[in-house]
Design brief:
Order of helices and strands: EEHEHHHHHEHEHEHEHEHEHEEH
Distance between the termini: 28 Å
Strand content: 15-25%
Radius of gyration: 23 Å
Largest sheet: 8 strands, mixed
Number of helices: 13
Amino acid sequence: MFKFLKKGKNGEPDTIAVVETPPTLAEDDERYKEDFIKENPDFVPVEDTPAEKADDKKGFFARLADGLQKTRSSINDRIDSVFKAFVKVDEELFEELEEALICADVGVTTSLYIIERLRDTVKERRITESEQVKGVIKEIICDILNTGNNELTLKGAPAIVLVIGVNGVGKTTSIGKLAARLTAEGKKVILGAGDTFRAAAADQLQIWAQRVGCDIIRLQEGADPAAVVFDTISAAKAREADVIIFDTAGRLHNKKNLMDELNKISRVIERELPESFKEILLVLDATTGQNAVSQVKQFREAAGITGIILTKLDGTAKGGIVIAISHEEKIPVKFIGVGEGVEDMQPFNPTDFANAVFGE
């Protein structure tokens, strides 16, 4: 939503106008601001006050906290119940916390690592009260989540984002929401329907392209995905697109075929876009818990994954998987899905995530 002030007779601001963007796009869609100014030259845009911007940030954080409610209950409530049973810091407390983390789907390996660091930090800082330990746990988890670059890297003209993942994890929806976000930022986006083997995959992507208002390149069902990426890159260059988002087949049953396919796609990209950074995002369903870690291990053998999109966090108590992926696989989480709306696929911020789970 944008605010404009109309100039009065003496040039001073007189009347305010509010312009709302379509609900399918983010509220900061620059195109609507430009169109309004062209049609209404007597109006000038005004920025939100710091207080209004703070309210927006609060609203953003509130949506995140609401979306992570089940994860917060799983992790925070379990840890709190341990602290209620212990007053002093001893080995039994550490063992109970370790069990609580494992039960919260943080995973055995990562839970052991957290508790080991917790022991060292408690000893180093000479902490004797159990209530002080929770802050240290939050600090350690926040440090784990700061793995690599959590921001999307869009480098090149056009930049390219390959999206991979098994069927059913929300891959197509994630592509659509990402396209909506980038379009709302003023970028010209083109989609490539590279999943040519799944029935109706291109049709679903077409619906998102129409909804978002971006172009899509698709070939007939069963076409070579490398041919689709070539056509998509050619179209992006001709239409001066800023970003290509390319869908890929969601198959894991034959890793050799998957690797061969991704290698062919990568060779075309490297030949046609030698200056562009290739962002490869793996979409995972958070409700699968530890199985998501297994998918990361398998896919990284076939592709150089640069980031994770974790979907359906609002529908599961297994959000501890974010911590396990960051620690065990050292791959940054770039986006998380905490609701059905376009705006509910949010950029991942380690500090905001920790605050939403443990409280600020």
